[in-house]
Write a structure and sequence with these properties.
CATH architecture of the largest domain: Roll
Largest sheet: 8 strands, mixed, barrel
Oligomer: single chain
Strand content: over 45%
Number of helices: 4
Strand order of the largest sheet: 1-2-3-4-5-6-7-16
CATH topology of the largest domain: Diaminopimelate Epimerase, Chain A, domain 1
CATH superfamily of the largest domain: Diaminopimelate Epimerase, Chain A, domain 1
CATH class of the largest domain: Alpha Beta
Helix content: 10-25%
Length: 273
């Protein structure tokens, strides 16, 4: 089957958006092939589908059914370019996204050739703590449960190395019963995050260059810990994603991320479905 795709880089998180209609039951397997060396490469795959809500510009179905802020802003950038957004302009969109029960709002701007997106993220369903096994011991970490994905924030003495994370992340995901699991190596002093994301349905474990939901999880965690609204630049290998968390009345009221979007390529590849 000929698969038409667009490849973008939202803050280094290389995202493949598939334009060709693909049955849901085949999406996870196809995503793994697209991300492989024999495919087109990248860190994640999203499928562009028809929305059921006429207010939405489209539906984004992620490869594991998770929610992804970076892929959402990528889809909206595609929509903005299709409508002919001019330099210096901005456009607002609503879209359906897997993992989100409500329409997601995104603003896309183009300034001196630089594309940026700001996405309203679904609020975490729970801010808690997890204690998990690791190499004969136990690791304790803040746990942020979000629609479709859970994140562990590993900082200070709780920061294992990358090889340890790769070995344990699938088991942690199984123990927690998460749809997808991120392990965020966080250095609060430098504001740096190194994200690892495991999506069991697609069989992928990726050390991402930029993680939108992980950045939002950091923002939510810091705002809850401080008990106030915060704007947090989260530095990661692909660049900076700014997480804005609005806190009020003892609860998180709003959460958004802002990042840069780069266009990489458009093309087609023949793969079995």
């Amino acid at each position: 089957m000929r698969i038409d795709y667009i490849k973008l880089s939202p803050t280094g998180n290389i995202t493949v958006l598939v334009r060709t209609p693909v049955p849901r039951v085949a999406q996870a397997d196809l995503a793994a092939r697209l991300l492989s060396a024999d495919g087109v490469g990248g860190e994640q795959v999203g499928y562009i589908e028809q929305s059921s809500d006429p207010r939405a510009v489209g539906r984004l179905q992620m490869m594991g059914g998770e929610f992804c802020g970076n892929a959402t802003m990528s889809l909206c950038a595609v929509a903005a370019r299709a409508t002919g957004l001019k330099d210096g302009g901005e456009s607002d969109f609503l879209c359906e996204v897997s993992g989100s029960p409500a329409l997601v709002a995104c603003r896309v701007s183009l300034d001196k050739g630089v594309w940026r997106g700001r996405v309203d993220m679904p609020l975490p369903t729970r801010l808690g703590q997890a204690e998990l096994p690791v190499d004969g011991g136990v690791i304790a970490a803040p746990m942020i449960e979000m629609p479709g994905i859970t994140h562990l924030i590993l900082e200070g003495g709780a920061r294992p190395d990358g090889d340890t994370i790769r070995r344990w992340l699938p088991e942690w995901c199984r123990i927690l019963g998460a749809e997808a699991l991120g392990a965020l190596l966080w250095d609060g002093d430098d504001g740096c995050m190194d994200p690892y994301v495991y999506v069991p349905s697609a069989g992928t474990l990726v050390q991402e260059h930029g993680c939108g939901s992980g950045s939002a999880a950091i923002g939510a965690h810091l705002a809850a810990r401080a008990g106030k609204s915060l704007s947090t630049p989260v530095r990661q290998p692909g660049g900076v994603i700014v997480a804005d968390a609005v806190w009020g009345g003892g609860a998180l009221r709003r959460l958004s991320i802002t990042g840069r979007i780069e266009w990489l390529e458009e093309g087609a590849v023949d793969l079995p479905v």
